[in-house]
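User: I'm curious whether this sequence folds into something compact or stays loose and floppy. Could you predict its structure so I can see for myself?
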Amino acid sequence: MSEENKNLSQIIGYRIDKLNKLREMGFDPFPYRFDPNHKSTEILNNFKKLEKKDVCIAGRIMALRKMGKASFMQLMDDKGQIQIFIKRDSVGEKIYECFKLMDIGDFVGINGFVFKTKTGEISVHAEKFTVLSKSIRPLPIVKEKEGEVYDAFKDKELKYRNRHLDLIVNSDTRDVFRKRTQIISEIRMTLDSKQFLEVETPVLQPIYGGANARPFTTHHNALEQKLYLRIADELYLKRLIIGGFEKVYEMSKDFRNEGMDRNHNPEFTMLEFYWAYADYRDCMMLVEKIIRNAAKKIGELKIKWGEFDIDLSKKFENKTFYGLLEEAIGSDISMMNEDELFEICNDNNIKIQKDSNIGQLLDALMGNLVEPKLINPTFVIDYPKSISPLAKTKRDGSKDIVERFELFIGGSEFANSFTELNDPIDQRERLEQQAELRDRGDEEAQPVDEEFIRAMEAGMPPTGGVGIGIDRLVMLLTNNRWIRDVILFPTMRIEKD
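Assistant: Here's the prediction. I'll summarize afterward.
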């Protein structure tokens, strides 16, 4: 009876029986090490050089065709797959009996020589066969014909909960995470080439700040105090600028205790960098360079993002926050009060709490009426101060506008930047305003961080700062529309028995 016709407990029992038989025959099904010297793709790409040469390869069995005196298997390593031919007369009767106890999912090592079968397929002719790990639990059934995969492991819930299986059977998934690593490496190279210093700042913080978000809380037993998982790196990185480092960056995990959707996971990866003596215009040029370099590293500057074709080679557009809202609404709303903005939200069927403050109202209008339409790379600049408490007031004298940009591509936000506020008196006033919003019920407003204010009072140079969502950037450059598809182990609800 084939495994497809057995239930899981029968399959596991059947495979454990095989495991015990291997031990009875004197084989160790879980040896300590093996020393392969070739990869599958290396053999396939260099056949003329390696034909009839001895090679040693290791990997997982992905397909088996067991026959009387000669058999075939498909072996997968971390580079690809290659066919293995094993013949009883070549490996000996005992080893061949050992091979017959193998299943799809087992790890094996092969010593042999490279050749082509009668059908012309490059293969390895096994002369020595070593069991490296006996698989007890079966893999998902995946069928492949002429390079096309059928019945693949596609169920999203199963993929995210069993990422190891997803990686085994879906080469596209492995490719996404290889590209993620390349993207992160290229970002580091770009910043390192500009003499930025990579640093590490605390994950556990006595007070959170640097963004408007609800934190996760924990308790430190020895200190007998509440601590927070960071929601952003900003305030600590600015202390380093105050301390004398002129260019710093951190690639880190941040945590926000908020909703989950296609663009949000409670644990996510952020890049933040701070640049002394620069402003948001300097940061704008560097962000453009970072994204272009990352795109070139893994492919092309002309990319697909869902139904959109996006060209990253062109100069990114610049548009103002209030200018875009005026285009969308048909009138200038920059001087409107909360009641007037609330009425516009109602007119546009935007759900908003009745006690929402002016910043929340403006943010809702922007998020609903403008952001989804920003398909080509666009820097939205010059935000209202009410939603940007850490940015400098615009230098042209507009008291309610700050020097800030957000980058939108394909209707999603990818970066946020300020000409950073470095006046400690102004900073205190703005954080106190945020504290008042917290008292009014805004759980995402920032508290006053006295230690940060004291650090600023020592003197902070003019500074430009940027945050880039790494997960979203990987989504963009690999054409994935769900953040869970670019995080190896996304946050999941605990599975009930």
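Summary: The longest helix spans residues 171-193. Residues 173-316+377-485 form a domain with the BirA Bifunctional Protein; domain 2 fold (CATH 3.30.930.10).
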